[in-house]
Amino acid sequence: MTAAADLPISEVIPAVRSALSTRPLVVLQAPPGAGKSTALPLALLDEPWLAGQRVILLQPRRVAARAVAARLAEGLGEEVGGTVGYRVRFEARVSARTRLEVVTEGILTRRLQRDPELAGVGLVILDEFHERSLNADLALALLREVQEALREDLRVLVMSATLNPDLPARLGAPLVESQGRAYPVEVRYLPADPVGRVEQQVAQAVHTALARDEGDILAFLPGVREIRGAQAALAGADALVLPLYGDLPVREQRRALLPDPSGRRKVVLATSIAETSLTMDGVRVVVDGGLSRTQRFDPATGLTRMETVRVTRDAAAQRAGRAGRTAPGIAYRLWSERTQPLLPAARPPEILEADLAPLTLELAQWGAPDPGALAWLDEPPPHRVEAARGLLGQLGALDPDGRVSPEGTRLLEFPTHPRVAHLLTGGASQGQGPLAADVAALLEERDPLPAGSGSDLTDRIVALRSWRTGQRLSAGADPSVLERVERLARQWRGLLGVLPDNTTPDALEVGTLLALAYPERVALARPAASGLGRGRFLLAGGQGAALPEGDALAGAPALAVAHLDAAQAEGRVFLAAPLDPGSLVARAAWQDVVRWDPRSGLLVAQQERRFGALVLETRPLRQVPAELRIPALAGAVRAEGLHLLTFPPEAAQWRARVASLRRWRPDEGWPDVSDAALLATLEDWLGPALASARSREDLARVPVFGPLQTLLAWPLPQQLDDLAPTHLMVPSGSRVRLEYRPDEPPILAVKLQELFGLADTPAVNGGRTPVLLHLLSPAGRPVQVTQDLRSFWNSSYFEVRKDLRGRYPKHPWPDDPWNHVATRLTKARLDQAQSGKSRK
């Protein structure tokens, strides 16, 4: 083992000690291999400010936690469980002598919930913080609150291999940097991006490295399936080929991490868990397949799916660095050099993308149902928190006020997702503890049956129980996966205090348990009338789902779905169990439902017994309350458009007048009466008038002008008539209607003879806005459009006069329009009228 004094971290240990002696929070950046995980914690155990208290070292993965604890214990010449111990899910090696505990993230959260003061703990170290896991962000937020409110003496050390430059400033913490002494690594790219399966590409690169290079080889693949494929392709290689992934038994993990006792050359095929923390002596070559597998949560569907994505540049650097920890090394990158700068720079913090149900429940238990009350590096997205609260409410973990219920407190005692915990507690309360333990274990592990085995979870339980009792397995069942499933099921049975059950399971009971974990994924078969065919279902969450063609569950009337992808239109079901639709009745509730049917143009009112989006039973709703009718009708108008309503001419002109004044006088509070605004506020201005409507015909008869006018608050109605009158009086004595249009001056269409003698263009808006004159012939046809009447009399009038006096000789066409009497009469009638006036 390398002595601590020989590790690069030794150069900055004094600086770390000094910073922690005066500051509660310190950031350390040190590259992989510097010794920050395996040497620094031991160097801090005897610091005066620690005063004999314990140190907690947080690791994001179980494999790393065990390996780091082993290295630390070896550095003291002890076995794990003495001065150095570890705690991971379902496993602990600690004693009364333990002063340094290496724990995984969920373990630290549980300890904080039970003892917020962390009594007896003087330092918490958050290792590999650059990964920005959800639990690491949560732990840091909780620890900062503990420091502020309860423990001024508690120290926190944030350690990272790579660092966001603004992290120390955002934390208000000093930064200590270790340059490390990594050996040079030669990076080799492919001439072009490869085509084909990654496991074959990795196997080919490993064969090349075995022939050309020295030392053990660490190869990165996205998942277990690809690891097995590469392992099969390397079956004849002159090396010991070993897998390494999180669910591998501890014995096999140690075999992959430690040098081969017989001295054989090793090839370790690993997932991304081998990027950091783990030390593997002898690795001189890294083969990077360029892919990783990550969980992506889709808030639109509430579902999480595994995605295989391109490696990020920072992760690729971490992987390559594994080849240069003990000697110069070589890194094969299975992509072209021109692709390298196109890779994502870094993975986004998990808190921005993950399923937030576990975090939301933890925060509620902590007494911070509003995440904004804590100091986060990145605050949880509010819309995802709301989605998580909805799920937790369905699980009975939160009460309507968002507080933790007794069931929620029970769920937190189980080291798993609240969904699975609810399945376990519900199964135990129903006397189905053994079956719940088997179902929970199968949900958390890989599928033990090969692809194409159908989606029925019950078949997996049968396979598990056959393996458990030594019976012959069905073709293709994977004993190694079944062994891991049983190991986990045994842990769950221990927590529930039940014995195994190896009888043939009742498929409907399996479905009932699944429904406890996935209430929004309970599904009813779509009726044959839908035209979608067998195997199509509607989920309680509102999404569609489909079974693979020919699946044995296709004829089930109802399903409880565990695994499906989050496709936009119709998700594909991978794992489910049949469900008795009658079992939903007790959990369903009657609701008054009023909706608009666009095909018939009618309002449909009925009572529905619903479980989420699933309708189990209906009956007519005789009395339709206004609070349901009005939103449904308003929704119909929004969906189909304002043309469903009839706007008489005076209503249309009223809107145009108000819209004009809103444009002319923006600071005087004239309301928005555009289509969009009226649609958005239908319930407010038109609601009462909709009270009796049930059809399109009824909507067309709804009086809209009166409700519209209520949008003007006093004194705007009077100002409307003053500033935007409906008519103007012209010199002839006629009262002529104005036509208002959006974004244009109002139009005054008037026979030009009626304006003789008028010099200035009439105006509205308190004289600020001239109207647009449409000057008409005696027959009412437009002959000129102008906003400058004076200029018209002085120029264009004489051209118009030449054209019109021949066509309309009976009408006056004076040489001097300025001094002629304004009239709408012919010359003869005008003479009669004037002579009559003179006789009087």
Topology:
Layout: H1 13-22, E1 25-29, H2 40-43, E2 54-59, H3 62-75, E3 84-88, E4 91-93, E5 100-104, H4 105-114, E6 121-126, H5 134-149, E7 155-160, H6 167-171, E8 175-177, E9 185-190, H7 198-212, E10 216-220, H8 224-233, E11 240-244, H9 250-257, E12 266-270, E13 283-288, E14 291-298, E15 303-310, H10 313-321, E16 329-336, H11 357-366, H12 382-394, H13 406-412, H14 418-429, H15 433-444, H16 457-468, H17 479-496, H18 507-517, E17 522-525, E18 536-539, E19 544-546, E20 558-564, E21 570-578, E22 589-597, E23 602-611, E24 614-620, H19 626-640, H20 649-664, H21 675-680, H22 682-686, H23 696-701, H24 705-709, H25 716-723, E25 727-729, E26 735-739, E27 747-751, E28 763-764, E29 769-770, E30 772-776, E31 782-786, H26 789-807, H27 827-839
Parallel strand pairs: 1-7, 1-8, 2-5, 2-6, 3-5, 6-7, 9-16, 10-12, 10-13, 11-12, 13-16, 19-21, 27-30
Antiparallel strand pairs: 3-4, 14-15, 17-18, 17-20, 18-19, 20-21, 22-23, 23-24, 25-26, 26-27, 28-29, 30-31
GO molecular function, one term: RNA helicase activity
Keywords: ATP-binding, Helicase, Hydrolase, Nucleotide-binding
Organism: Deinococcus navajonensis
